[in-house]
Fold this sequence. Notes:
The chain is of the alpha/beta class. 30% of the residues lie in helices and 18% in strands. It has six helices and nine strands. It has helices spanning 2-36, 52-68, 88-99, 156-161, 175-185, 223-226, and strands at 42-48, 73-80, 105-109, 113-115, 131-132, 151-155, 204-206, 241-250, 256-264. Strand 1 (42-48), helix 2 and strand 2 (73-80) form a beta-alpha-beta unit. Residues 279-283 have low confidence and may be disordered.
Amino acid sequence: MFKIRVVIRIGILYCVLFFLISFWYSSKIETNETNTIPKHRLAVIVPFRNRSSELEQFLPHMNAYLHVQAIDHIFMIINQSDTHRFNRAALINIGFIESRTVVDYIVMHDIDLLPLNYRELRYDYPEKGPVHLASPKYHPLYNYSTYVGGILMITCKDFERVNGMSPLYWGWGREDDNLYARMKLAGMKIYRPYNLSTNSSNTFTHIHDKHVHKRDYAKYGQQKVAGRKIYPEMGFNTTKYTIINKTIQKTKTGVEYNMLDVNIECNYNLTPWCDHRPTNISK
Length: 283
């Protein structure tokens, strides 16, 4: 009888110890999981049209680059499906609108500019203010002081503060200059990388083929004059568009991305130059 009681007590003690150990272990796992949850999430927003070959280069490269830096990210490829002239700013606004519920910062990223210096050129959360990664000092082509194109990181809150980008720019150029003016008007300091071990020849690689993808430099009517105005009241809040198709796709190498086919609405009274009209080109 005594032996039976001892066995029962040992069994009860074993069960209690097993429960306590199990509880401690599961709590530790939960704590570790909590500690590894990323604090921030980045949306890589890529304005896109007819650049499939570049996309197959860009996505694997950037996915590997961001994984090395442990950056939690999603890819938002915003494809302009309409027949209007290309509107980079409107596409970036759309990418922001469609991703802001799941990320807290974005990077507007040209598809033909690939970073190479993964040790020093980082895509971390821009807590202090907008970060222009494609700094004039390191960009292979553009080196004027107010340049903020190519690759610019900004928090969702700061993007909202400046009302995003002006959707009035159709064709190539000037939308970045407008964004620079908006950020300065909002009192934002723009940060750039410095003291890198690389230079303008090896910080980035530029994969744009100007013979295959020609820039749309045409200026119609008052387009050049209107392009000098900021219109801060017009931005992502006035960007009108229709989503034609929204899918999750994978590259040939298995990189997952969001593809949004969109039609951008043109206000012909405000920007009659959203379509090509060769007889009205201003030099």
